Amino acid sequence: AEPVRLKDYKAPDYLIDSVDLNVKLHPTAARVVSRLSIRPNPNGRPDAALILDGDGLIVKSIAIDRAAPADGVVVVSPQQLALANPPQRPFTLDVETEVNPTANSRLMGLFRSGSAYCTQCEPEGFRRITFFLDRPDVLSVYTVRLEASRAEAPLLLANGNLVEAGELATGEDGVARHYAVWHDPFPKPSYLFALVGGDLGSIHDAFLTRSGRRVALGIYVEHGKEPLAAYAMDSLKRAMAWDETAFGREYDLDVFNIVAVSDFNMGAMENKGLNIFNDKYVLASPATATDADYAHIEAVIAHEYFHNWTGNRITCRDWFQLCLKEGLTVFRDHEFSSDMRSRAVHRIADVRALRAAQFPEDAGPLAHNVRPETYYEINNFYTATIYEKGAEVIRMLKVLIGAESFSRGMDLYFERYDGTAATVEDFISCFAEASGRDLSDFFRWYRQSGTPLLEAASSYDASAGTFTLHLEQSSKPTPGQDHKEPFVIPVALGLVGPDGDLPLKTETDNAASAREIESGVFVLSTPQRTIIFRDVESRPALSILRGFSAPVRLDYAASEADLIRLIARDSDSFTRWQAAQTYASRLLTRAVADIGAGKSPAEDYDFVDALASVLTESADPAYAAQMITLPSEADIARDIGENIDPDAIHAARFGLRRAIGKGLSSHLHTVYARLAPDGPYSPDAAAAGRRALRNAALDLLCAGEPEEGAALASRQFASADTMTDEIAALGALAQTPGETREAALKTFYRRHAHDALVVDKWFALQAMLPDADTLSRIKDLTGHPAFSFANPNRVRSLVGAFATGNLTRFNAADGSGFDFVVEIVLCLDPKNPQVAARLLSAFKSWRTLEPGRKALAEAALRRIAVRDVLSADVRDIVDRSLG
Ligand code: B3K
Ligand code: ZN
């Protein structure tokens, strides 16, 4: 197959001004009558053929301008409807098709979740409902009439506002039917279409926009789960208010509905006025959702809501521009969460996530640009690079041009491109105009993949009182890109003396450059540059990449004494945390080498002492929890970079946790006792932070003093009244194989067997156990009554957690982990290729493994590659992974 290429983009030859759909819901034979008002695009090619996309559609009837077309005028197949010589004037095309929602296991198009009907159209699902120009630059006004059995689907929703609803005469089958008509006045691309039919419970509220319009809000969930949607509703109202003050964006329809379903390929979908959610991002109660779940719900509700402006009002010209809506909307939801919670802690969590998911993607065979230039399967481009790195690039842009210019650029973007399908160039041009700066070099962040390496070296001259900093950037080749131009990297930095930040004074005659450096943000846009700071009285500690000002890897050989000073004194909360991580990473890397050489790793008391002061001095528990949480095994693997032995990494990390747990025992006990739950539950960041620190302390205590730790964990497990504390206690107990662990796992299941989302946590926890028998446990669990390969959440909890969260067992030395995941991918692929392909992308770092494991991973991938029949999704991932 040939890839789709950005450079081949052509405007559509025809436009579709309006779409009238009449959908009769039926479990196995839903009927869709569509009437399209089509006209030639003045910017298209005259007399071009009109080819509408379809996917597996059964055609029942066709009419052009309400009349049956002559033979041969329309050529149809399940995948396409073609008019070789369409009228060169406005005309209507009526097509009736039939689809089977119950048989739709791909969960794209019209499908069922439980007994409810729902849709997912982004990116190319609308063609599985009816024939259409299923591309984001064709914007139409939709009117949707839904008809269904009143008993089966008393609720009928679609985009926009409700215009009419009523009963229908009972048919010959004796089924009482009803209908509803929805109209969405805002022209939109087909990927934003949605409908829902079913028997659901709901909660309702209202939001008054700043111009005084009342918006009716509804959240629809399974009957009985209504109270669990309260936090989602609260998050929605806060998101609506925030977008008005932070970005000046007001909601535009009379209703905003959210529907939660349990079978969903991703997190949620921003359909205009009718968001459809994975119920995991809607339902929460203290006893069933962790603090992390609450934070995710808040973020995802906000993210989908924010799409109303960044994605829906201004959409993408083509799928290469995906980051235009996704990177920007992630940037917006990060800002929202930072305002709702602790900005410092949030930044750390976002960077941890970026490094965990995006850095390995950018360093391996699946690396691609934030704005890709080719694709075989667009579904595989909903990646951490498009989303998270896309957001980082916008954050950098803001650092570079300043908050004011940034805000003017956003306003310009909304004003100029509202109602259009735009490009990344359109977006960036607004900031160039608002800031008066040339951003063409900055645009390389969109055109070049790979994480740049920023190397810093420094020297101090005591007699001259100067501190010299040399910065150098370099980028390794990535697939299809051997040579890179330098990136424009904003490097926020400071110099830290024994008592804190020093004023920055530079040695340069260039006033502009002096101002830039003294502002604390230095822009490296060339391969290398040197800065000399003057009036520096004693050797300072360099605090570099403050706030993680650019998505780069940093290599700077700070002395351990400097790291300790930064941990204690750095005014920037991010680099203060980073100093602790860097210190830990250094100890861990050394320990891995020692273990590899058959030696036992040396202990380091300075690091443990530094953490002790964090525990005694830190005023913010959430921040302290981040400080004492070591880099993950995957973080360590990335720092080492090649010839990875996951067992040595696991042993090294365990050893350091044990050393900290022992060394800080009394501090940890104090923290654990001091932060015991008191007063009523609150999901807010302060209360969550206390739980986070207490549970981080418990985790270390269990590593340092297994028996005492287990006793604390058992007590907590028995008495916990929040899921956060309950699952943390279970996780702590699960560190030690044996009867106590198995009994606790059984108890947990018994307590929560009726709640699929909580059972998912139980699956995931077991999937991530480092024990040798984990794989056989997982294989048994695939036969558990609560498990189903048809439900994406279940598959992700068990198999996904194993493949992405269990470094040692997925990469087991005998290849059994690889073989298992390959087997699951092959069995899922015919049913749900998107989920299968996502699972397969867990192999993205296979080339960094030591030779034995590497060979086994490659052999496993090749077993997929040689198959004749694979989905486009899995074919694309496997070929690129091996490429
Ligand atoms: N836009 C959707 C993602 C659609 C994914 C299709 N494979 C959710 C979001 O990013 O908000
Ligand atoms: Zn999104």
The CATH homologous superfamily of the largest domain corresponds to tricorn interacting facor f3 domain
Q: Give the C-alpha Rg.
A: 28 Å
- Beta content comes to 15-25%
Oligomer: single chain
Number of strands: 31
Estimate nothing, just give the exact number of structural domains.
Answer: 5
Side-by-side strand order of the widest sheet: 5-8-3-2-11-14-13
Distance between the termini: 16 Å
CATH topology of the largest domain: Immunoglobulin-like
Structural class designation? alpha+beta
Q: Which CATH C-level class of the largest domain is it?
A: Mainly Beta
> Any idea what the shape is?
globular
- What share of the residues lie within helices? 40-55%
- Number of H- or I-type helical stretches: 28
Bound molecules: (3S)-3,7-diaminoheptanoic acid, zinc ion
Task: Give an overview in words.
This protein is globular. The model has no long low-confidence stretch (mean pLDDT 97). It is an alpha+beta fold and 883 residues long. The longest helix has 24 residues, at 573-596. The protein has 28 helices and 31 strands. The two termini are 16 Å apart. It binds (3S)-3,7-diaminoheptanoic acid (B3K) and zinc ion (ZN). Residues 303, 307, 326, 329 line the site of zinc ion (ZN).
Short description:
This protein is α+β, with helices and mostly antiparallel strands and 883 residues long. The chain folds into five domains: 1-198, Immunoglobulin-like (Sandwich); 315-447, Orthogonal Bundle (Neutral Protease, domain 2); 453-486 and 488-556, Immunoglobulin-like, CATH 2.60.40.1840; 557-704, Peptidase M1, alanyl aminopeptidase, C-terminal domain (Zincin-like fold, Alpha Horseshoe), CATH 1.25.50; 756-883, Zincin-like fold (Alpha Horseshoe), CATH 1.25.50. The model has no long low-confidence stretch (mean pLDDT 97).
